[in-house]
Design goal:
Blueprint: E1 3-6, H1 10-21, E2 27-29, E3 46-48, H2 51-56, E4 66-75, E5 78-87, H3 89-97, E6 102-103, H4 109-112, E7 117-120, E8 137-149, E9 157-160, E10 168-176, E11 179-186, H5 192-203, E12 207-220, E13 231-235, E14 241-246, H6 262-275, H7 279-289, H8 291-304, H9 314-326, H10 333-340, H11 342-348
Helix pairs in contact: 1-6, 6-7, 8-9, 9-10
Bound molecules: flavin-adenine dinucleotide.
């Protein structure tokens, strides 16, 4: 059986390893043409320490990739302990690709005919699967910035929702050596540059900001449930059948509230490798494992509803709280609930 994996992002490369361990060989394709300074797709590089267990299964050590710790982070004025860090994702992707045969071009229609199974690991592009049944995306703009404090403390890691009109957030992720990823993303938002400029202006008395590079991106925050179908059968020219099966962000394994997709794409790849090649078992397992993403998507749909006058419901606040807990962020319950009331301000006064 000939198998191709289209996409050498985190999902495609990690899956290649997991399948290889089971004696299943696959050809990996990616042009790696992202138009970014780091050579990889736009990403904040934030990950929970729990990513270490996924790396260990392919003999990699998280300590080799950690750039900076985010053990203390600010969330709209609330400081919390977190198990988050930034990882050198380009280095991780290079190491994951080492030893794999990567065809450095996109998998196109001509090559595609050679395969019985094509794994669509093409992220936001979803190049081979039919469209998601209800897609939702978050456009982003991120800068890598050198930040120097003007006499005070170094800039703290943080995520700020109240700075964004509508649903979105501004993130500040430290990369070590005084460098940071500072980015903004918002659903149906297009004032990225202006929001970032406003932030720099506001902080100009405390820090100097020197941009190093920038990139635009889009994150699929639809949830797996709204990204069905995960799999499809099509006929090849010779009349034989070809299976397409999605993994990672192509099928929406991204936290809808936060846009975190690195660890969840690895988890999705693990589920696919363990269910290979049973597509029904895979679909059931992905929908069950990421059922909470469907709930988060439901909250986003509710908050995005036209003409709505009320703020987040109790269940929405609870979902925000659970989201933080899931990422290991220990927010005090009552204070967190109170602050999440600020969501209503974003929604009611965009
Ligand atoms: C600005 C931004 C910040 C983010 N920050 C974070 C963060 O801090 N933490 C976190 O966990 N997540 C973050 N994410 C989300 C995370 O980056 C993704 O969810 C995750 O990397 C998805 O991995 P993937 O392998 O599924 O897809 P991708 O990483 O998108 O990889 C898909 C690959 O497929 C390739 N491709 C496309 N078409 C074809 C084709 N026809 N043939 C072959 N290859 C093809 C592309 O070139 C690409 O390399 C962020 C996303 C953005 C945009």
């Amino acid at each position: 059986m000939n198998i191709a994996i289209a996409g050498a992002g985190i999902a495609g490369t990690y899956l290649s390893h997991l399948l290889g361990e089971r004696g299943i060989e696959a050809d990996l394709y990616d042009s790696m043409d992202h138009g970014t300074s780091c050579g990889y797709r736009s990403c904040g590089w934030g990950a929970p320490a729990g990513i270490g267990k996924y790396l260990a299964t392919v003999d990699l050590d998280l300590a080799d990739y950690c750039m900076d710790s985010m053990d203390s982070m600010e969330f709209d004025g609330l400081v919390a302990r977190t198990p988050l860090c930034t990882i050198n994702k380009p280095r991780l992707l290079r190491d994951l690709s080492a030893g794999l045969t990567l065809h450095r071009h996109l998998l196109d229609i001509r090559d595609a005919g050679d395969y019985d199974i094509i794994v669509d690991a093409t992220g936001i592009t979803r190049a081979f699967l039919p469209p998601c049944r209800s897609d939702l995306v978050l456009p982003t703009l991120q800068y890598r910035v050198k930040v120097e404090p003007l006499g005070g403390d170094p800039l703290r890691a943080g995520v700020y929702g109240t700075r964004i009109p509508g649903l979105g957030y501004l993130w500040i992720f430290p990369l070590g050596n005084g460098e940071y990823h500072i980015g903004v993303g918002g659903i149906r938002m297009d004032q990225h540059e202006a929001i970032l400029q406003h932030y720099y202006d506001e902080q100009a008395h405390r820090y100097s900001f020197t941009p190093i590079c920038s990139c635009r991106g889009v994150v699929r925050v639809a949830s797996p449930y709204s990204s069905l179908p995960f799999s499809t059968l099509q006929s090849k020219e010779d009349g034989t059948r070809q299976r397409i099966i999605g993994v990672g962000e192509s099928i929406g394994t991204v936290a809808p509230f936060t846009g975190e997709g690195i660890v969840y794409s690895m988890e999705c790849a693990r589920i696919l490798a363990e269910s290979w090649p049973d597509k029904k078992r895979y679909e059931r397992a992905v929908l069950a494992r990421f059922a909470w993403m469907r709930d988060e998507r439901e909250t986003l749909d509710y908050l995005l509803m036209e003409g709505k006058v009320t703020g987040p419901r109790l269940r929405d606040r609870w979902r925000f709280y659970l989201n933080a807990r899931r990422s290991g962020i220990r927010l005090p319950l009552v204070e967190a609930f109170r602050r999440m009331g600020s969501l209503s301000r974003w929604v009611e006064n965009p």
